[in-house]
Amino acid sequence: MDSVIQDFRKAYSAGDGYGLAQTLSPIPPSSQSERLQKFFQSTNYASAQKEFRNQILYDNSGPKMPMDEGNGWVEVYTAYWKAIGEILSAEAAAQSNARSSWTKVYDAWKELTNVLHRGYSNCGFEAWTVPCFYVVGKYLRIFAIKADEDAATSTTTMTNFDDFNPEAERNEKLEDAARQLNRIFNLCLSDRAPLEESRKWGIYNIINLLFKTYFKLNSISLSKNILKAVRAYTGDMPVLESFPLAHQVTFKYYVGVINFLEESYVEAEKNLTEAWNLCHKDSVRNKELILTYLIPCHLLTTHTLPTQALLSPYPRLQSLFLPLSRCIKKGDLSGFDAALVAGEDEFVKRRIYLTLERGRDVTLRNLLRKVFLANGFEEAKEPGAPQVRKSRIPIAAFGTAISIDSKETMDNDEVECLLANMVYKNLMKGYISRPYGMVVLNKKGAFPGTGV
Amino acid sequence: MSAAPASGAAPTNKAAVADKSAESAKDVKLAAALEEDDEFEDFPVENWTKEDTEVPGDNTHLWEESWDDDDTNEDFSAQLKEELKKVEANKKK
Fold first, then answer.
1. Once rounded to an integer, what is the mean pLDDT over residues A279-291?
2. Interface ipTM
3. A353 and A431 both lie in a single domain
4. Boundary of a domain, candidates A211, A243, A275
């Protein structure tokens, strides 16, 4: 008997869902690099199903299970066997530089996904086996991406058909994968079994796969439908905190980013901070991704910047955020604009450009704050009285500061407009007295939250 | 993408067609590598304890204020004060 079926029987007898899922992985463990070849060679198209049936249902040394369920697993391993055949030939083709067909791999893997789905809907697969979906779903997405890349390169290297629209078909398989994952999502969500034996325990892993897929497809709004569907089941579901941390952290990260993209920065910050706090300390790349959104979030909600201590383990984040941070602190508007332009491609790719752009307000605030500080103190009315900063400042003084900074003069109307905006955004407190050409600042905190 | 170092250049004695498909296979690999890079990675384990997170208890040292008060003597402030004096002088005229 092949080791794949042996491992199935072992995991099934032990009720080990993750072990069972591992038998459906398309990646062999490093200790058994020949595992997939051996499995594929252990039988052939004509007899695979029959052999698996004998090994799973009719072998007395194996675990006992209902006939229906057993047949379901026979179908699963038959589909898996076929998919492995496609994977091995795709890999062999890639190695000999021949054209590999990840499309065939995807189709075979999709069939495996469907057979597994049927196992739950028709054959009574139990909820503890639900990690099988984690493995099968994960690779469904990966093979879909590979298949779409294949299709993209073959159309560019071959001919251009007149009516061919590459945009529409570019993500054909990945869109299909999203539909399959959605079916799994509904299968888990609608399970009516009592919670302790419910497929609902698989829900967040599947949601995370869907999020990854929707993000890749640039259909982020679809993620919100998922969140809505889950919300409708609140009270009927185990709370998020009772799921494995891997599921929780990934979920919070994506919910954080979704909120971030909708400019709900407070909600985004909450989720991203939780993801940050719970993240495994060795998952450097994931921590880096969380910070990519948490840093712009923090800049907007609390007007604070990351310290050297926070950035030091992440060179990529340093190059992303340090130049901007320096300019914000210095109140250097032209430097800020230049840094924004310099990083534009990367910022746009990460979808943080628009948020960072709003850091310009904080930069301007810091520049105006400098004018306030440079403007000095009132003459003391009596000796020993605490010094009071001059709260009336000519509009022209602010204009001068902006002009020095940007090396071109700005007319007074424009300066007034900027100042009025600062007041409106609550970054500066005071009013403009036009007849006198003065700004009258609040004596108790002209620049809220900055100590002056 | 073509500027990337070729890992195992295509054998020279192969037909041009074969070379081309080798190129595209390489591109696919490279693209795949780039894409994976962009997503939240799977964690190597499903669950872990508090000890495996880096909860410092207090996150405050990780964030700092967005303004800088240490540079009141730098050029900008000096220049600003100069300019402000000029503004004052102009007004008095």
1. 94
2. 0.80
3. no
4. A243
